[in-house]
Amino acid sequence: MRITLLVTGILLFLVVAPLASPLPGPGGTVIAALGIVLILRNSRWARHRFVRLKARWPRVGAFIDRILVRGSPKRRRERAKQVAAN
Prior knowledge:
Mean pLDDT: 84
Shape: globular
């Protein structure tokens, strides 16, 4: 099942998103984001590369975390707010 989801993510990101991008609306962007989500959830190699990208370019990593609505950055921001309030 995991391999199927990974292949689906790769196909969405590399094949379907470029084909849908000329159409009106944000379809290509949404499909590409869905493909990236599937790839990151099912590939250790992709997650490792994503962590390295975030370490090298933190602003890009924070932006992607916001788009993907990941739980860990939300917890870090909440903890930072609590520490700043105390």
